[in-house]
Design a protein that fits this description.
This protein has about 150 residues and is mainly alpha-helical. It has one domain. It contains five helices and no strands. Helix 1 runs antiparallel to helix 2, helix 1 runs antiparallel to helix 5 and helix 2 packs across helix 3. The longest helix has 28 residues. The radius of gyration is 17 Å and the shape is globular.
């Protein structure tokens, strides 16, 4: 059974993870704002696909804040949520109003590529943040973090 828990424990590894996910969420929101206000060349591409990359990164960040699990499980859960959004579009179950704007109305296989890129960027962000935090905290690679 999967349970979601807001990370409320204290310790270097939890604080490092929380900081990484908050920063990732901020980057994802910045990408979203950029795509919303961009009016230059390639606007349909930026609006259609770069926004999907940012949205997937934001889902990953939320899961990282709410669910303490391995990066692999978080990656799979984020990909499943993104695939579910595309599935809803394929079967025509797009919610009305703002829900339709958030989920999208038209299925597009290239959305799956954008989702995969977003998940890959988020995973790389997490790995790099955690790795750089371990190096700055003075822990060697052979010393596991205290639990």
């Amino acid at each position: 059974m999967i349970r979601f828990v807001l990370i409320a424990e204290f310790g270097e590894d939890v604080n490092l993870m929380r900081r990484a996910m908050v920063l990732l969420g901020g980057v994802a929101l910045a990408v979203g704002a950029f795509t919303l206000f961009y009016r230059g060349p390639g606007q349909p591409f930026i609006r259609g696909y770069v926004s999907d990359v940012g949205a997937t990164m934001l889902v990953y960040a939320f899961l990282g804040l709410l669910w303490r699990t391995t990066a692999a499980r978080r990656t799979l859960a984020t990909a499943a949520i993104a695939a579910a959004a595309e599935f809803y579009q394929i079967v025509g179950m797009t919610p009305p109003g703002i829900g339709g704007v958030l989920v999208g109305a038209f299925p597009d296989p290239w959305d799956l590529v954008a989702y995969a890129i977003g998940v890959g960027v988020a995973l790389a962000w997490e790995r790099r943040s955690v790795r750089s935090g371990d190096q700055t905290s003075g822990l060697s690679d052979s010393t596991p973090p205290a639990r």
